[in-house]
Specification:
The protein is 0% helix and 46% strand. Strands 2, 4, 5, 6, 9, 10 and 11 form a seven-stranded mixed sheet that branches. It has a four-stranded antiparallel sheet with strand order 1-3-8-7, with no helix packed on it. The protein has 127 residues and is mainly β.
Length: 127
C-alpha cells in the first residue's frame, strides 16, 4: 500500500507559477511510475504528465507542454509538478498517482494505469 500526499496548491493570478509536490509513505521513486492528473469542476479527470521509475522518462500533455514540467527528488522522496504561465483554464484539483512499474521509456496517461492516488491539491488561477 502506498499513500500519497499532494501539497502546494492555492490561488494564483494568470501568468503566475505554482509548484505542486507529491510525497509518499514509502520510498517509491525507484520502482514506481508517477502520474499527474487534474479535474476541473464538471469535467472528467484529465492526464497532465507522467514520469517513469527507472530511467526518468517524462511525457506531458499537449495542453500544458512548454508550461508545466515534472521532476523528482529521490533524496526527499518527492515528485514536483512545476506550473508556469498559468491560465484560468488550468484551474482544477490536481492529483498525483502511482503504480509499481519498472518499464523504461514509458508511463501511463490513463487513470486506470495507476493503483494509488493522493487526495488532490486545489489550484485556482484567477485575477
Amino acid at each position: 500500500q502506498v499513500q500519497l500526499v499532494e501539497s502546494g496548491g492555492g490561488l494564483v493570478q494568470p501568468g503566475g507559477s505554482l509548484r505542486l509536490s507529491c510525497g509518499a509513505s514509502k520510498n517509491f521513486l525507484d520502482y514506481y511510475a508517477i502520474g499527474w492528473f487534474r479535474q476541473a469542476p464538471g469535467k472528467e479527470r484529465e492526464w497532465v504528465s507522467c514520469i517513469s521509475s527507472i530511467d526518468g522518462y517524462i511525457s506531458t500533455a499537449d495542453s500544458v507542454k512548454g508550461r508545466f514540467s515534472l521532476s523528482k527528488d529521490k533524496a526527499k522522496n518527492l515528485v514536483y509538478l512545476q506550473m508556469n504561465s498559468l491560465k484560468p483554464e488550468d484551474t482544477a484539483v490536481y492529483y498525483c498517482a502511482t503504480v509499481r512499474n519498472e518499464l523504461r521509456g514509458w508511463c501511463s496517461s490513463v487513470t486506470h494505469g495507476y493503483d494509488y492516488w493522493g487526495q488532490g491539491a486545489a489550484v485556482t488561477v484567477s485575477s
